[in-house]
Amino acid sequence: MNTLRLVPESRGGQSEIFCGEGAFQEQLPRFLRAHAKRFVFTDSNVSAIYGDLIKRTTGADGLFVMEAGEEHKTERTLFALLSAMAEAGLHRTDCLIAVGGGVVGDVGGLAAALYMRGIACYQVPTTLLAQVDSSVGGKTAIDFHGVKNLVGVFSQAKAVFADPLFLDTLSPREVRCGLGEIVKHGALNGALFDRLFAHQNGLTDLETLKSLVFDNIQFKASVVAQDEKESGVRKSLNLGHTTAHAVELALKTLSHGECVLIGMIFEAKLALLHTECDEGYLNELIALCKAALGGAWKLPSFEETARNALLDKKNTEAGSVVVTAPVKKGKYCLLSLPFETYLNETEQIRRELC
Ligand code: GLY
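Above: the input record for the complex with glycine. Below: its predicted structure, written as tokens.
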């Protein structure tokens, strides 16, 4: 069992993280003994496979199961959950246990932060993406007014339990989705990059991925510890995400992680055009992203897609697009491009790739 304590420099809430076999069934119950009532929040997919195990392990006094899917990350789900918590009679010393992927973690974390101005929240991430990224670092949110994560707070879970038992039932696409954020961490950390590059022909092998989860958690936690509220170094975790979000908005058929891999390919190619970068390394990173993406993927013209990048939160002036681009092993830069340049170059890159 690997463990670490995330202590943000800002002295926000601390989070204990357990990663490995037994995290869920052995470690979580130790924490739950401190609470008179335990309320479980999960989704329909997780409940169908693990519902009985979850009830047995948590001794849940209350349960709310949301419909699975990104499209349900809404105020409607949030308030339905809060109603169920109120109906269960939860008090401030009780707790919420969020068992699921990124959506369950984000909505559950937000509900726990809001209910009675904050009750204890335990995160049990069940997807690869949630284990290596979204369950760590205290970001909670719902999508609102057509904008992803518009309403939310930073609120660290009391503890996170990343258990490999949940990874065995993931579909290949869900595995690829987590790989997007794993490769992104590799682009920001040389040691992780070397490990991934050494495994590039077996990137979707589950045992390999399980062996990488804790390193990814450690890396993410080290970034969050320095900059919990994303005013500095945490922005690096947006690497590849300007183009990723633009593609994600344009093409609802690709998952977030697949879009992150595509975004990194485009932004590495933009770095080749505009920065003093390490060309050999960037070509290796591009090869790694392509290996993680697997088979053929097609993107439509960037004429419309590129316009979505104008909405990115990192942009500092009207008419320009900021990307967090990889430049050298473990190094990134913020690159601000006039919109016309971004549009023409991303369209050219798309034609070369697809
Ligand atoms: N997923 C990026 C972050 O937590 O900051």
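Notes for the reader.
The chain has a mean pLDDT of 95.
The radius of gyration is 20 Å.
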